[in-house]
Amino acid sequence: MRRAAAVKPPDSKAQRGSMSTIVKSRSEVTFVLLFFVVLAIVGIACGGFFVRDFARARASAGWPTADGVVLSQLNQNSDKVRYAYSFAGRSYQSTRARMFSARLLKQSERDYVPGDTIAVYVDPSDPAFSVLQPGGAAPAFVVFALLSGICIFFGVGGVIWTFSEGVEAQSLSGDDVDQA
User: Fold this and answer.
1) 148 vs 136: CA distance, rounded Å
2) pLDDT tens for residues 94-109?
3) Of the candidates 100, 105, 108, which has an alpha carbon nearest to the alpha carbon of residue 81?
4) Rounded alpha-carbon distances, angstroms, from residue 72 to 53, 78, 99, 106
5) 3-state secondary structure of 1
6) Any idea which fold 63-133 has?
7) What are phi and psi for residue 142, nearest 5 degrees?
8) Based on C-alpha coordinates, what's the Rg of the chain?
9) Which of 40-54, 89-103, 106-120 has the lowest mean pLDDT?
10) Hey, where are the domains in the chain?
11) How many helices (H) and strands (E) does the chain have?
């Protein structure tokens, strides 16, 4: 018949050190796990944003146009303007010159002067959403999509790796307890 071993409180510095190592190891694992989860979430959120932006940018080339008027120039050195337009009997204002993915393209050669009449490309499903320059930059979309994919890959891979390392560490620490 086998006797159960009595559990002694840690009385040596080596045993107390291993206990703090376990606590430190758990907090490190939690931090690493949190980092990888956040990385995956950021990748998913940014990827969704870039896909939606590029889809709208491509669709904007086929949107109907409305006559608009430049109300003011927001910066002296850029094409940022505030403009007003009417669509389907309602009036709207916006400051969006182009989609996010198109911002990496060469800036517009056009100078917008308050009072100028402009063509405004209006999203027929959401008339409050409009741009002055339709389209997007496919190379920018590819770069952003790849960066988002890399974040997702390393985030999910890191979560899996962290859990597998945690299971391995638990099995090793369990073996040490059985042997003692």
Assistant:
1) 18
2) 988 888 877 776 666 5
3) 108
4) 26, 12, 20, 22
5) coil
6) OB fold (Dihydrolipoamide Acetyltransferase, E2P) (2.40.50)
7) -60, -45
8) 29
9) 106-120
10) 27-61+135-162, 63-133
11) 2, 5
